[in-house]
Amino acid sequence: MTYTVTWEEIKSHYRVKDREFPMLDDDTPTFMGVPHATTPEDLAGADVVIIGSSYVAGSRDKAGKGKYAGVSKSEWEQASKRVRQQSIRYPSGYLQDFDLDIFEHLNVVDMGDAEIPPGVLKDPTAENILRAQAAVEAMVGAALDAGAIPIVVGQNSPCSSYAIAKPIAERAAGKVGMISLDTHWDSKPIDYLTNDPRIAGSGNWKAKTYEFHNNFSIPNLVEIGERGMLEKKEQVRFYLERGCHFIPMWKVRTELGIDGLCSELHHAYDGTDAVYVHFDMDVIGGNGPAPGDILGDLAEPIGMSDYEVIRVANEIGRRGLTGMSFICIPPGSAVIYRLIVYVIAYLMAGLIQGRESGADKG
């Protein structure tokens, strides 16, 4: 699927054309038109900070082919821009589902995109990847230090997963829980693209998170969505034997349902001081609002539905979180980019609902 929606077309939409909103560049508005934060002072009092990360993975010998998982890198790397563009369709933060305007309760700002070194896409050496990772870490750290929840809209690891987990771990006084939605465990022993033990890459970022940060607690890992025959049994059993709470899609469909799934989220909060939330959007497989084939090699059957992903986000918001990231946002579909807007908006609604109910996390 080729994305054909231009910024000029979006600007001419009847909900957009007569409005003013901050612009990050000529064709990129801030997320839902929130203020653009460019200095530490702009982060003061922020509840949520939106951050973009355009890093796309690839090996040096395949870098010239311009594809990741069979899809053009140029499509993958546009995610943060296209999510922001589609977000501007919504003239306010009012969610009619809950009769709630999120921007009346939360101070949300957009820091723009991390400065990913341009050479990393064509020459993804370990050193270039680490520089790109550090650029995201710096922005996430600034948001955390301001007392805000960073939400990173990205595409590949480590820049849109480990780069969020690391600063959370470094600032947490105690154990850190994780809620992860994914089709893959991402727990191979080493990054297969670089073979460098420093890199928490596309297939191994979760393993590196637990290797590098002792306060990330496997018994507080809630792993949701994997299914089928993709993983080595030794890698899955490693986590199961150490107390991971694994909820495959088969169990969601046959036993738990969405309410039962949400009831399992508490394991990430039990005895922890921070919770990192990671949505790898290949978890929707072919069950989202667009064909699964737009994911290329990453599409798998029995995926989560768009409602299930949004519902989980809302339930997480009700319980609270420290930071969040997105990777593998299926490229090429306007409605998929709107799905990310919904996930973030309904998560923020959950933050407000949790505060209003006085609910403790968990």
Model description:
With 362 residues, the chain is α/β, with parallel strands linked by helices. The protein has one domain (20-357): Ureohydrolase domain (Arginase, Chain A). 34% of the residues lie in helices and 16% in strands. It is built from 11 helices and 14 strands. An 8-stranded parallel sheet has the order 8-3-9-14-13-10-11-12. It has a two-stranded antiparallel ribbon with strand order 1-2. A two-stranded antiparallel sheet has the order 4-5. It is globular. The N and C termini lie far apart (40 Å).
Topology (elements, then pairings):
Blueprint: H1 7-11, E1 23-25, E2 28-29, E3 48-52, E4 67-68, E5 71-72, H2 73-76, H3 79-87, E6 94-95, E7 100-101, E8 108-113, H4 119-122, H5 126-145, E9 149-153, H6 162-171, E10 176-181, H7 205-212, E11 216-224, H8 233-241, E12 245-247, H9 249-263, E13 274-280, H10 306-319, E14 323-327, H11 334-357
Parallel strand pairs: 3-8, 3-9, 9-14, 10-11, 10-13, 11-12, 13-14
Antiparallel strand pairs: 1-2, 4-5, 6-7
Helix pairs in contact: 3-11, 5-6, 10-11
